[in-house]
Amino acid sequence: MKDIDVINQYTGEKWYYSNIVKEHFFNPRNLLWERPENENEYDAHGMVGSPACGDMMEMWLKVDKATERVKDLKWKTFGCASAIAATSMFSVMVTENGGLPIDGALKVRPQDVMLRLGGLPNRKIHCSVLADKAFQKTANDYFRRCGKFDKIIVEGARVVDARLNITDKDIEEAVLEGAQNLEDVQKKLKVGIGSPEIITEVEQLIRFYKDKYYG
């Protein structure tokens, strides 16, 4: 009996990876093997996942300030072949032909990436979401740095700092990235600066996530 998970949903062919997927896996575009020597060259940075528990994706973004088009997008990952190929293709799609506007890049769906790749096995589709989530996190960092808080995308999370549009999920991810206390979290997010009434709640969330992940 054939495993339907290895059937390409676009072509019906019965194999694991298309030649395009293999090309982007063996020769990934815009990949960084190490962190940038000077991260200040970039206008934004974002990371999703954790190497301690599974796939991780980290991105660095350069933006043309005059047009808000994606000028450059670099990434590194702790992930599988599907995650590498999907992110490689995503980075091409948002930077080709002069780069997409950030708002347009945020509309690139995992399905769009898979179509350009020629499909992924069904059991690997979740890997293509890593690039989408990492770019959204990176774009949010750009909007936050530019003071465009109304553009920050909030999904499935509770807003803790309404002025800066920071959620409990942002605080959770800051703790996962190594923040240990309020000062560390504020260096990453500036949460509660100018809103002292939420500091107690932020500190409670930090303790909760530290206990949850580090005991």
TrEMBL record:
**Residue spans crossing the bilayer:** none
Q: Which residue stretches, if any, does this entry annotate as coiled coil?
A: none
Q: Which superkingdom is the protein from?
A: Bacteria
Classification via InterPro entries: NIF_FeS_clus_asmbl_NifU_N (IPR002871)
In this chain the NIF system FeS cluster assembly NifU N-terminal domain maps to 17-146
One MF annotation (Gene Ontology) recorded for this entry: iron-sulfur cluster binding
GO BP annotations of the record are: iron-sulfur cluster assembly
**PANTHER family (alphabetical):** IRON-SULFUR CLUSTER ASSEMBLY ENZYME NIFU HOMOLOG
Please report the name of this protein according to its UniProt entry.
Nitrogen-fixing NifU domain protein
